[in-house]
Every structure is written in C-alpha cells, then in structure tokens.
C-alpha cells in the first residue's frame, strides 16, 4: 500500500467479511458505509439500488452527508454523474472543474470536492451504485480503484442474494397461509 492509498487489502478483506456475514441488506449496507468512511477517512458514502421503472437510484444507506444534500432531488441514472455507460466507474477528482454532476452547486455547498461512483452490476446489468465523497481533491490510485471495483462486484452478489432471500421468505409466508401443515 502506498502512502496515498485510502484502502488496502486488509481493509478490503474486513469489509468483505462484513458483507458475507450480514443478516440483511440494511445491516450490510449501513456497516459497509460506516467501515468505508472510517477506514478511508472520507467525508461520506452512499449505497444505492436502481429503481428501473423510474430510472432513479434510491438510497439504501448513507452517512456523512447533510439531510439537505441527501434530499437534493432524484438521482436520475441518465443525468447523475454522466458517463456513456453506467457500467463504468466514474472518478471525479475535483468537482470544482467537472461538468459531469447533476447537482454541482449542491456538491459545492456540501463541501464535496471529489466523488468516486462505482456501479453495482450483475451479469452486465446495473442494479445499484456505491458513491464515495471526499472533501479534498482525490487522485485515486490504481490499487484503490481495483479494490473498490471488486467490492462493488461483491455488493452486487450480496444485493442479488438478499433479493432472492426476500423472495423465498415471501413465498414461504404465502405457503404457510395457504397450507400451514406444510411448514
């Protein structure tokens, strides 16, 4: 780990252990956000899931950001942190000189100087995003980028798992209502 890296293999492993041992999406996402902010010493982080019907990213967990910033308006997939493909990591090292933000004035007022937006993809389909916010200009290193992209892949698998678990539990509850003897 270079002296500039905000994340290393030990931190990554600890966060992954949290992902794999969590009992629910809410618990997992809140713990991951807290660990990222604390270990990387960044301003804040947000974990989003995609609402495909509305074309919006919806917050699952966030920390380190003001209520005003969090409630600034809808995070539209085709306008928020613009990129030709929403399946790519977007690194905005300095928000003061970027034209990629949907709400640039809100970011400036919030004291956000850099943003790393990591898509959460499963089988080539975007299902969410992880965003990291820093109050300083941040030149992300190749190691940081690789570890964060790997974390986003794991968050995608975890999100898929929790969705499947919710579906199975719902089916189990329905069966219990219809045929209580079966369960």
Question: What are the key terms here?
Answer:
GAF domain-containing protein, GAF, six-stranded antiparallel β-sheet, 5 helices, 183 residues, Beta-Lactamase, alpha+beta
Description:
By secondary structure, the chain is an alpha+beta fold. It has a single domain (9-182), classed as GAF domain (Beta-Lactamase, 2-Layer Sandwich), CATH 3.30.450. 42% of the residues lie in helices and 22% in strands. A six-stranded antiparallel β-sheet has the order 3-2-1-6-5-4. A hairpin with a 2-residue loop joins strand 5 (114-122) and strand 6. The longest helix has 37 residues, at 142-178. The chain is globular, with a radius of gyration of 18 Å.
Q: Secondary-structure blueprint of this entry?
A:
Layout (H helix, E strand, L loop, with lengths): L8 H13 L3 H16 L3 E8 L4 E8 L3 H4 L4 E2 L13 E3 L11 H7 L3 E9 L2 E10 L7 H37 L5
Antiparallel strand pairs: 1-2, 1-6, 2-3, 4-5, 5-6
Helix pairs in contact: 1-2, 1-5
The side-by-side strand order for the widest beta sheet comes to 3-2-1-6-5-4
Are there runs of 5+ residues with pLDDT below 50, and where?
none
Radius of gyration, in Å, reads 18 Å
Largest sheet: 6 strands, antiparallel
User: What's the CATH architecture?
Assistant: 2-Layer Sandwich
Tell me the total number of β-strands.
6
Short description:
The chain has five helices and six strands. With 183 residues, the protein is of the alpha+beta class.
